[in-house]
Automatic annotation (TrEMBL):
This is Polymerase/histidinol phosphatase N-terminal domain-containing protein. Residues 129-191 form the Polymerase/histidinol phosphatase N-terminal domain. SMART domains: POLIIIAc (SM00481). GO terms for molecular function: 5'-3' DNA exonuclease activity; 5'-3' RNA exonuclease activity. PANTHER family: EXONUCLEASE, POLYMERASE_HISTIDINOL PHOSPHATASE N-TERMINAL DOMAIN-CONTAINING PROTEIN. InterPro entries: PHP_domain, Pol/His_phosphatase_N.
Length: 428
């Protein structure tokens, strides 16, 4: 297991190249394992004798050459969605691959090439990022490169590019970043905003005049494969004033710094859950420009994803495997019921319904709350910095769901505000 939670398979191969092989193309074959998320290859050349060897670099998959950098690079990465310039992203099919070399100049004594191949396997893990951002492609001040660099500095894994009624950001995002760039668009009307996530071009025309037009736009985005989010639905300036019964997948419960508008959406979401609806809550910074309070990944949305890809992240959100903290280094609440995590439904035959909570990153004075159908069912205060654990028998309480929150006193604003919240575990 690597520091980022991924399982990696690595191998080191060597090949002696004789002077007689100068000008030849040489393959160093290797077997690509199954379920690879990213391929990383590096190489070094050790010349024998006094002459300097020049050996170029490339790679092929079982069907075609997937990239070539000549003598310009000593390493490259190929992922499912992004790759080092000169290389093609896409499926990393298992089977016979080969590192390619051009023996451009080989000294009389020959040389030895040492190739290191590392495969990051698809590993379910918690990834963190921001699901609502803007750039110079609409009314933001940050370039896409700025956004990616900031998210990398924060240690985040993904960012959704949701410029207002624009899709150009989805065609021009930087490929040389470790951050997954989720294509998106903020469907922006005069009476409410909605994010379309996961597709490059969700709409032909964003303009609407009535509810029928809104329904038609949502249907078009849905047909093209977009996930639909109701954004800041109880905002003071741009609330969702259309019908709440419109087609949507998720709701943005936490938009930017925690304020009354978020509290109103939280109360609405709680009432929806209590009515029996299973609706996933997400967060997003809605960052546009440098600001003392509205910043990237504040709040930070955590997703338990099957892979570090757009597909893996959106699938994880679809399962409700979502936790939100006020910042990337904010508290994390591990909420479980046996083998079930947030977003899961505990089946009726599972009569043992002991819920465990392992909250990390708490500060002394933080309050941890467990919340069910009718409100708080258990709470505890952290007496010191560090972890806090709780357990609760949800079966005895006859709950249809349980979720968790952490509240903290923030001295900078002299207020007690939400520091973290989870989606529910449901009970059939």
């Amino acid at each position: 297991m690597n520091n980022d939670g991924t399982i990696r398979s690595s191998m080191t191969l060597t090949r002696v190249i004789e002077h007689s092989e100068q000008s030849a193309y040489i393959e160093i074959p290797f077997d690509m394992p199954d379920r690879v998320e990213e391929l990383f290859v590096s190489y070094r050349v050790q010349s024998h004798g006094e002459g300097k060897a020049v050996v170029d670099l490339g790679v092929r998959d079982p069907h075609r050459v997937r990239g070539w950098s000549g003598g310009a690079r000593t390493e490259f990465r190929i992922g499912l969605e992004k790759a080092t310039p000169g290389y093609l992203p896409g499926a990393l099919s298992p089977g016979g691959w080969a590192v390619l070399h051009n023996a451009y100049r080989i000294p009389p004594e020959g040389c030895t090439v040492t190739v290191t191949i590392e495969c990051a396997l698809k590993t379910p893990r918690w990834l963190k990022g921001d699901l609502h951002t803007h750039s110079v492609n609409s009314d933001g001040k940050y370039t896409l490169e700025d956004n990616a660099a900031i998210m990398e500095q924060l240690g985040c894994d993904f960012i959704a590019m949701t410029d207002h009624n624009a899709i150009s950001q989805n065609l021009t995002y930087p490929r040389n970043t470790s951050v997954v760039m989720i294509p998106g668009m903020e469907f922006t009307t005069n009476f409410g905003h909605s994010n379309f996530l996961g597709v490059t071009d969700p709409l032909r025309d964003f303009r609407v005049k009535d509810q029928d037009d809104v329904n038609a736009r949502l249907a078009e985005a849905r047909e093209r494969g977009a996930k639909i989010v109701l954004n800041h639905p109880h905002c003071d300036n741009c609330a969702w004033e259309w019908d709440f019964g419109v087609d949507h997948d998720w709701v943005e419960v936490w938009n930017g710094p925690w304020t009354a508008r978020n509290a109103r959406t939280l109360a609405w979401w709680q009432s929806e859950l209590a009515s029996g609806r299973r609706l996933t809550a997400i967060g997003g910074s809605d960052v546009h420009r440098p600001d003392p309070y509205v910043k990237h990944a504040m709040p930070c949305t955590w997703v338990y994803a099957s892979s570090k890809t757009v597909e893996g992240i959106l699938e994880g959100i679809g399962r409700g495997h979502v936790h939100i903290s006020y910042a990337p280094d904010g508290p994390f609440i591990g909420l479980r019921c046996g083998s079930f995590i947030v977003g899961d439904a505990v089946p009726a035959e599972e009569t043992e319904r002991i819920v465990t909570v392992a909250a990390e990153g708490l500060k002394a004075g933080d309050r941890l709350k467990l919340i069910g159908n009718s409100g708080v069912v258990k709470e505890a205060d952290a007496t010191e910095d560090g972890p806090l654990e709780l357990s609760f028998d949800a079966g005895e309480a006859n709950l249809s769901f349980i979720r968790a929150e952490v509240w903290r006193r923030f001295d900078v604003v002299d207020m007690t505000l939400m520091a973290a919240l989870t989606n529910p575990i449901y009970f059939d």
